[in-house]
Amino acid sequence: MRWRHAATRLLLLSLLTGCPSEFGKDGRINKASHQDTMDLYSKRCTDDEYKKYCANGRQNTPECRHHCG
């Protein structure tokens, strides 16, 4: 019977060690949910505003987020 408990605990330990990379602050699931939320609540800006604040790799800057969502 002890080997079952030990095997179960070992399995749980191995599964739980992967959680920070998935669910942590910089995990995949956290990033995906943040992006989905930003898509839902994004403001729409004109093409000129987008070029001014978000073009050329500036999509994650505070100015782009403020003006275009």
Tell me what you see in this structure.
- The protein has 69 residues and is mainly α.
- It has a domain at 42-69.
- The chain is 68% helix and 0% strand.
- It has 5 helices and no strands.
- It has helices spanning 2-16, 19-23, 28-40, 47-53, 62-68.
- The chain is rod-shaped.
- The mean pLDDT is 78.
Query: Which outline best applies?
Result: rod-shaped
Q: If you average the pLDDT, what whole number results?
A: 78
Q: Biggest β-sheet, characterized?
A: none
Number of strands: 0
Helical segment count? 5
Sheet/helix structural class: mainly alpha
Low-confidence stretches: none
Instruction: Calculate Rg over CA atoms.
Output: 21 Å
Helix residue percentage = 55-70%
What separation lies between the terminal Cα atoms?
57 Å
Keywords for this entry:
69 residues, mainly alpha, 5 helices, rod-shaped
List the helices and strands and how they pair.
Layout: H1 2-16, H2 19-23, H3 28-40, H4 47-53, H5 62-68
In short:
This protein has five helices and no strands.
